[in-house]
Each structure stands twice: as C-alpha cells, then as structure tokens.
Amino acid sequence: MSQAPDHDPDHWPRRLVAAMPVLPILIISGFVLVDLVSGSGTTWVPLLATGPALAATTGGPRGVLCVGLVAAVLGVSLGIRGGAEGSELAVALAALLVVTLACGAGSALRMRRERVLAAVRSVAEAAQHALLQPVPATIGPFQVAVRYSAAAAEARIGGDLYALVSTPYGVRLIVGDVRGKGLPAVGTAALVLGVFREAAHDEPDLLDVVARIERSLARNLGSDDFVTAVVAGYPREGQLEMVNCGHAAPLLVRDSVVVPVDPDRPAPPLGLRSLSGDAPALHVLPFTDGDQLLLYTDGVTEARNHDREFYPLAEGLARHTCDEPVDTVTALHAELQAHVGGRLHDDAALLLLRMPATAETPVRSEAPEPGRVGSCPS
C-alpha cells in the first residue's frame, strides 16, 4: 500500500510551491531587484503588497498567503540590508500583513461565489433541459434544427420557448416569447409548454390547443402579462396549419425565395384575448417538398449592432439557406452574434422546419461543432 501524501516529507513543500502564483512572485521580485539596484532601503517595501493583491484575483487564499509570506521575508531582508529603523520597517510590514489578510479573505469570498455560480449554472442547465427538451434532427416528415441563446448568459435560460411533438394528429409545434425576463418569465414559459404538450396530444383541432393555453394563462397570469406565440401543426400531407397570436411572422423559404407568412386575421397575444375579444384564426399554408419554415423570437429581429441597425433576418436566411437545417441555423446564429458584437441583449430562438424532397432521405450527417458554420452556399 502506498504511503499517504500527508506522510510524505516532500509533500508540503510541493504544495507550497504549487500554491504560489507565478506572476505575483515575478512582480515582487522585480520590485526587489529595483530596490537592490537603487539602494533605497524600505522605499519599495510597501509596493510588495502588489503581489498578494494580484494573487487574490486569480488564486485561492493559500496562494495569497504564500505570496504575502514571500513578500514579508523579502521586505525584512530589504529593510535590514538598507539599515532601516525598526519602527519604519514594522509599519511597512504591518501594512503588507493587513493587505495580505484582506486579499486572502477576498479570495476566499470570490471562490465561494464561484462555487455558488457553478451550482446555479448547473441547476439552470438542468431546468433548461427539462423545460426546453432537445428537438430531434427528424420528426415525422420534417428535418428540424433549433438554436437558442438566453440573454442572461450565466443562467442559460430565459423567457423564450419552443416545443415540437409528434401526436396522433400529426407533428405540432410552438414557438413563443414571454413578456418580461427572469424567473417569472421562466415560470410562465414552463406553464405554456406544459399545457401545450398535454393539449397537443388531446385536442384534434389546433384552435382548441390554443384555446386551452389561453384559458390556463387567463387563470394564472397578471393583467399586464402575456405570451406571443405561433402554434403550428401538420395534420395532413402538404398542409401546414398555423395560429399566430401576436407573434412575429414566420419566414417561408420556397424556390430560394424568402417571404413572411402573415396571418389572415391578426390575433392578440395569449393571455390578452379577454381584453380584445378577438379569437385567433387558423391559417393553412401549403408545405411541400423542399419548403422550409423559420420560426423565431423578437430577440433575433430586434438585435442591434453598434450603429443601432436591426439584424436583417430575411436577408440572412436567404444567404444561408441550404438542405441541412442545422447548418442554416448555425450560420444564422453565428451571423447574429457577429452583428451584435458577441453578446445578445434579449433571448433569441430559431427553429427551422424543412420538408425533404421526395428523392431525399431525411437523415443528416453529424452536426457541426458549436459555433462552427456549416457548408451552406453563400
């Protein structure tokens, strides 16, 4: 049986060396060298506190204390070499000690917050997987791809929602956007998705699916809350049914032409029907071989660049459309991120449906690496 590390006589020296951040040691060594060259006594000793202060930004408390110890030893050596008075040297070393202890405490607090943040991100990832369940590459007759980005990057979840399910009445889907942000928006999104997944399997009529979501929101939302959404279904070959409740018009790609699919009769967002009295209407869209439909949230179209210009989604879709939906949405997402300079200020979701041509087999190759644009034609 091997000897435990704590009984190894060389174990603690190795741990001490490993705990010392290199850059802070190099910095205080530089101050010592300057002092030796200039022969200025204790003039440079207070600046040795830079070492533990810098160590606190990246290392743990042990590393900060180790750097502080090295700085104290070097400070005493410089003071003795320069013939400094005891009181002067004591004041300098006391200041160095206070800074080291404060930085060590700050480092411990930072590491604790990092652990809490890691736990929060882990919980958020689990919540996202439960709320926004993974969408298969193929479902029913469709090829499908989804890309979602939350504005709260650390939380990785927001108020945009999507779901795609196979039901006895054909493939059904929803893409929506909850008013507001944060936990209340996440709770509303969870409510909508839960009702949708249940109603999509129970209700033969797509309008009845929407009506059940509306009733549930009317019981649970405040008077100022609402959800914009597009609910769609594919009940029979060649026809796609859609109900648009105050949401951005989906984009249809047919014969390399991109056109918005505006509703025949505009309807209010979900949760506001009682205020207007307008019932949503069913829009039937021919959807055949090679057709593609992009559904999205306003975080995409309202994303602005440094010149305050909106992202031109229709133009981007026309540039990047290809036969692999995952390549198309990956290219669109990459272009969107470049447009805003790398950080979105609102949740953004993209969901692309494609009806493969009859001669095609709706099975795609391995998905590209995250952030990598697929081989779409320019």
Q: What is shown here, in short?
A:
This protein has helices spanning 11-19, 22-38, 50-58, 61-82, 86-131, 182-202, 206-220, 273-276, 298-301, 313-320, 325-340; strands at residues 138-139, 142-149, 160-167, 170-178, 227-236, 239-245, 251-254, 257-260, 283-286, 292-296, 348-354. With 378 residues, the protein is an alpha+beta fold.
Describe this structure in words.
The N terminus is likely disordered. Helices cover 45% and strands 18% of the residues. It has a six-stranded antiparallel beta sheet with strand order 1-2-11-10-7-8. The chain has a five-stranded antiparallel beta sheet with strand order 3-4-5-6-9, covered by helices on one side. A hairpin with a 2-residue loop joins strand 5 and strand 6. With 378 residues, it is α+β, with helices and mostly antiparallel strands.
**Strand order, largest beta sheet:** 1-2-11-10-7-8
Separate helix tally: 11
Characterize the largest beta sheet: strand count, sense, and whether it forms a barrel: 6 strands, antiparallel
N-to-C SSE string, H for helix and E for strand:
HHHHHEEEEHHEEEEHEEHHHE
End-to-end span in angstroms? 63 Å
| Total beta strands | 11
Approximately how much helix is present in the residues? 40-55%
Pick out the low-confidence regions. 1-6, 361-375
Q: What's the overall geometry?
A: elongated
* CA radius of gyration: 30 Å
- Into which percentage range does the β-strand content fall? 15-25%
Mean pLDDT rating: 82
Secondary structural class: alpha+beta
